[in-house]
Amino acid sequence: MKTKLTLLAASIILVIGCQSVKHDIDTDPVIDPTLVKVPTKLSKQPTSIEDIEDDLAQANDVWQRIRDGMQLRIADKELVEHYRQKFIENPHHLEVVTQRAEPFLFFILEEIEKRNLPTELALLPIIESAFDPSATSSSDASGLWQLTLPTAAAFKVKTNWWYDGRRDIRASTIAALDLLEYLYAKMDKNWIYALAAYNSGEGRVLNAIKRNKNKGTETNFWMLKLPKETAHYVPQLLALADIVKNSSELGIHLAAIENKPRIEMVNIESQLDLNLAAEMANISVEELKLLNPGLTRWATAPEGPHYLTIPIDNAQSFKRSLASLDPDSRINWVRYKIKPGDSISEIADQFETSPTMIRSSNGIKDNNITAGRFLIIPIATKDADIESLHADQQLARKPVVKSSTKGQSYLVKSGDNLWNIAKNNNISVDQITKWNRLRKDQSLKIGQNLIFYPNEIAQTNGLSEKVVNYRVKSGDSLARIAAAYKVTVADLIEWNSLQKNKYLQPGQMLKLLIANS
Question: Quick one: pLDDT at residue 331?
Fold first, then answer.
């Protein structure tokens, strides 16, 4: 970690006396000499307990960490001063931005420092989006870093019906930094040019430089003919960097952001219902969606990416719950009887899922469906439409109504089993398995965390079946699979839209509706 401990530095000065501070001058010929950093005064030595405490607080503040890694020269230009004054005159804007940035700024700074980039880049989302992941521009740029769809695609950021990676904190940050590194190399290692190109495109900046060279005029940023937005973009960032660096001297209060991780990106490996994820993380669905703004539907994307952002304090218990979760319980399912005139797209709209998901879940290659047949459809755990379905259409997990949202934690010890844990805690085995999504025959692990909700009332609502995925093996037949799972061949054909005269293929996936125990 690059954080400079001001307190330690001050102590050394007290012991060995003051030393001169040397600042490197960037001699790159393409850098505007007006961007050369002027050496700043040494901070005063702490003379009281209050001074020492203040120094220690600064050393543990993300803003101080940003100050310590700054590399850009602040130009003495009219536009820089204009935006510096705007920030000074509008302190409320920085207050709002700080609140939005608090969960994410440490993560962004970590990614920047891994690459040894200027820490001023951590301030770009303030200029781009005011740290609002849902921000969208007139050019259809989106997210903290305002990536467009073509840029997102070029840097392998997914966007689809389920997910917009431009709004995902992890994916968009990695893509934006990849782009900035590319532009820095392309622009002869000049960060000012690179920042201008981030705003308006590399071609526009390179052409402006070429025009000035051909005319024999200076090629520094301030002499280039660029779009007005770009001409103002770089000064805004430089002014903001100066505000952050000299906030105390300028009378700007930046609310401290503790220099430690606030979130953890957990690899959940496959699709997961967000209501269920929030429950396992012990947070609200609203908080989960705020931390995962790239998720646009009721579940994570079927094909990934499979990262879910969880508050750091909840991450370990979430991962334990996830590890013990029955794979068949990750999403909710309904069985829908096709009506005359139905289409896959209309059914998908009705259940807030995608036509692709319905086709893949039912082994359908085209859009042809037959009235009277059934489709198996993934659906949100708390979807209003499920209440209107008949009991025999509802196939998913048995939902639980909690009389208290505050759970009690129990750590599994040597010799524990579901029966004695239930007996010792005056609850039932059924309650433990429902609360923790366990099978009754599932072995417990020493140190495993279980959650109990006393006085909870379980509701079955007729949900008597669950969906099981079965991969066809060599030598399998419909009759053999039906006998093994105590269902009929007719059921298998109906559930999977099979044809009686077609052979099963090894590796083929079948959906089976199995009675819950």
Answer: 82
pLDDT for position 446 = 81
Identify whether 128 is a catalytic site residue: yes
Cβ–Cβ under 8 Å, residues 147 and 183:
no
Neighbours of 348 (CB within 10 A): 18
**Does residue 214 register a pLDDT over 90?**
yes
How far apart CA 353 and CA 96 sit, in angstroms, is 35
Provide the mean pLDDT of the chain: 80
Give me the amino acid identity at 495: W
Residues 405 and 408: their CA atoms lie apart, in Å, by 10
- Select the highest-mean-pLDDT range: 133-142, 214-223, 480-489: 214-223
- DSSP letter string, 475-515: T--HHHHHHHHT--HHHHHHHTT--TTSPP-TT-EEEEEEE
Give me the amino acid identity at 186: K
pTM of the model: 0.66
Looking at 78, 102, 128, 303, which residue is catalytic? 128
The 3-class secondary structure across 102-165, one letter per residue, is CCCHHHHHHHHHHCCCCHHHHHHHHHHHCCCCCCECCCCCECCCCECHHHHHHCCCCECCCEEC
Residue with tokens 């309650």: 431
Query: Distance between CA atoms of 239 and 397, rounded to whole angstroms?
Result: 55
Asked whether the predicted pLDDT for residue 167 surpasses 50, the reply is: yes
Burial code (b: 16+ CB inside 10 Å, e: under 16) for 475-504 equals ebebeebbeebebebeebbebbbbeeeeeb
User: In Å, what is the CA distance from 315 to each residue of 282, 283, 321, 407?
Assistant: 10, 11, 10, 16
Residues 6+ apart with CB under 8 A from 485: 468, 470, 512, 514
510 in Cβ contact with 497 (< 8 Å): no
Residue 132: the pLDDT is 95
- Residue 226 to residues 102, 185, 230, 298, 389, Cα–Cα distance (Å): 34, 20, 6, 43, 60
Token couple for 107: 């993560």
Alpha-carbon gap, residue 449 to 437, rounded angstroms: 12
Distance CA 327, CA 469 (A): 10
Dist CA 1 CA 105 (whole Å): 15
Q: Collect all residues with Cβ–Cβ distance below 8 Å to 333 and sequence separation of at least 6.
A: 376, 377, 378, 379, 395, 396, 466, 467
Torsion of CA 237, 238, 241, 245, to 10 degrees: -170
Average pLDDT (491-510) is: 75
The C-alpha atoms of residue 403 and residue 400 are separated, in whole angstroms, by 10
Residues 24-40 have pLDDT tens digits of 323 233 334 334 343 33
Give the E-state strand segments of 242-286 in sequence order: 263-267
The upper half-sphere exposure of residue 280, i.e. CA atoms within 13 Å in the direction of its Cβ, equals 29
